[in-house]
Amino acid sequence: MPENKHNLATGNVSFWNDPAKRSLVFQAILFLAVFAVGYIIYQNTQHNLESRGITTGFEFLDAEAGFGIIQSLIPYDETHSYGRTFVVGLLNTILVAALGIFFATILGFLIGVARLSHNWLIARIAAVYIEIFRNIPLLLQIFFWYFAVLRLLPGPRQSLELANVAFLNVRGVYLPSPVLGEGFSWVLAALVLALIVIFFIKRWARRRQSETGDQFPVFWASLGVLIGLPFIVFLLSGASLQWEIPELKGFNFRGGLTIIPELSALLIALTIYTAAFIAEIVRSGIESISKGQTEAARALGVSPGKTLQLVIIPQAMRVIIPPLTSQYLNLIKNSSLATAIGYPDLVSVFAGTTLNQTGQAIEVISMTMAVYLTLSLLVSLFMNWYNKRMALVER
Amino acid sequence: MKKIGLVAAMTAISVSFASASISADTLSTVKKKGYLNCGVSTGLPGFSNPDDKGKWQGLDVDVCRAVAAAALGDEKKVKYIPLTAKERFTALQSGEIDILSRNTTWTLTRDVSLGLNFAGVNYYDGQGFMVSKSLGVKSAKELDGAAVCIQSGTTTELNLADYFRQHGMKYTPVVFDTSDQTVKGFEAGRCDVLTSDQSQLYALKIKLSKPNNAMVLPEIISKEPLGPVVKQGDDKWFNIVKWSLFAMINAEELSLASDNIDAKKKAKNPEVKRFVQSDGPIAKQLGLNQDWAYQVVKQVGNYGESFDRNVGKNSPLNIDRGVNSLWSKGGFMYAPPMR
């Protein structure tokens, strides 16, 4: 505590010479300055908008939107409000970001590990993958998947089909969708029960291993419980689940579940692009672990797979997580390129069509920016928490 | 951190607005710059499209040229700024462009809530549908369940929803940013139908690799009066744009064309005389040179010439004059008298 020492030594310090008080003053001044600038900007904007006869305010959110959106996770049609289009766009953004993060993480880890493989061919393929996809702009990749690859698919009437229940054509992938019947809630209850059982199996197996040294096949047992329990209940409840199969009617398939090609193209591009970066992060993480760790594990007779899984990766995670967070944030923000191929994400639906129909540029753009800011902060918050948990605790 | 981010965000938005703060008088800024910033489409044959030498041409482009001829005395002093449907109004509001001449539909909402003024109509249009012939559809009423390609942020998007709702039909909207992407989507079979203003359908049709495989359905489901737009709050500029367009229409009515206007300079007809010489006080009120109307016709031509050259019988689009004929020939084109 240098300040206290200083105070004690001199007894009485003038206001300006006290670093603590001085910094408080400067912070207050800075805060006021920032606030004042913000206020002037706000006033100026308001004045300019008014003098140009441009309507301001958020009332437009309650007005009827009157345009259609190709994909929405919540019920939406033309009679809903502009506020609803915001939610539809937001959920579509979250959908593509979440799926993208999920797939990019898996693919990135696989490629990253493959890059370090002792198999020359596998390591080369991974290296080529990384160099190709890391060095081509994402927008071009999105265009490539959408305009070059997916457009080669046949039209609705010549669809590729799988067992007459799933269809693939230029309009998307058509899958059977589940129709929940009566008593299906019991199956869901069984699923929850299975999860609880798995939790206890895991605890019991760990205790048994530390007591007797015997290993228990936890993964296979869990899988069995996870699938078996709900399945038995499903049969007992009288097979309360039916499938709605897409049918070619009129112009296109109706019924069932549709995955639009815009989503597929965006997701494929985001996944492949981000995975290339994640792979490099994983590689650097693994390479940061001393070779002695592997050698020690091998000397104890631990198999190479288990060595990677139990010794190397957990230590590597400490190096991996911070840059991985950046990649997740990049992916979320990059998802806004959706507007280039017409995937109805927040930027396309809300900052695009809604903005254009209402002309409320400032309101719409601030709302959109606030969304990306919030999403990014949430992800970063979660990853920081996870990082802290994984960090090396020094004793 | 969050607060700082918000402030930064707000600064970013408003600085872009503030920097383009209102210059009360567009005419003097344009004169000072020496050229006119004109917002056009990203490429729509017949209306605003660069030719093979990169020179912008079309019915909408001719409005820009006419205003430049009137205000600056030279139709070439225009800088064309291609804008997507989504960008156009913000570009005009923020002062990036002086005129928006980009097949824009005049609607109530746009007129009253966006801080804009519509300066007239240079093409009366209506929304239609284009389908591929192999579909075997003869009427828009058979389109239940179809996937429809649309350009985002247009009145088209709203009319489409209204039409299908009104007829109890369902559709899948496939929304693209530019008309180019929309055509690509239609061609690749992403959608069954392409919907747009009829004039655009003809323009887009000739962009298809096999134009003869597509057909335009007979239904017209909306009124789409298209015309140039200016920012609100500058009446002088509003008048100049308005009367440059009217001069073109009046010229056709008076049979004044780019190739005969010199000969008519000495005409006896008082109306023609007024047009060619533009009585002093009026030109001064407009803030223009005496011969502004003469320059418009001399350099750009009258409305009929512009129509024939760009979308009519002398163009690949070959659109019928139809309702865009002069009022005296059964159409809607009617300009207030110049006196």
Automatic annotation (TrEMBL), chain A:
- Residues crossing the lipid bilayer are 24-42, 86-114, 126-148, 184-205, 217-243, 263-282, 364-386
Show the NCBIfam families listed in the entry. Answer: HEQRo_perm_3TM
Q: Which InterPro entries match?
A: AA_ABC_transptr_permease_3TM, ArtM/GltK/GlnP/TcyL/YhdX-like, MetI-like, MetI-like_sf
A Gene Ontology annotation in the biological process aspect, one of them, is: amino acid transport
Q: Kindly state one GO CC term assigned in the UniProt record.
A: ATP-binding cassette (ABC) transporter complex
Main localization (coarse)? membrane
* Family, similarity comment: Belongs to the binding-protein-dependent transport system permease family. HisMQ subfamily.
* Annotated protein name in UniProt: Amino acid ABC transporter permease
MF (Gene Ontology): transmembrane transporter activity
Q: How does it sit in the membrane?
A: Multi-pass membrane protein
Q: Which Gene3D superfamilies match?
A: MetI-like
